[in-house]
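Have a close read of the entry that follows and walk me through the local backbone shapes. See right below:
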Amino acid sequence: MLRGVPPGSWARIDAPLGSHDAQAVEKALASLSREGIIERDSGGRVRLPV
């Protein structure tokens, strides 16, 4: 999903995502953020680090 977004642009990842419910999506996004793979803003949007 994020690869199709222009560099530096924010995207919203809505649940469910495939077979993953909202809790699983949130857990995965939080983990990716902690690892520095994505950035998150206060509105729940995500982007690849710039």
About this structure: Strands lie at 39-40, 46-47. The helical segments are 22-34. The chain has a mean pLDDT of 95. The longest strand covers residues 39-40.
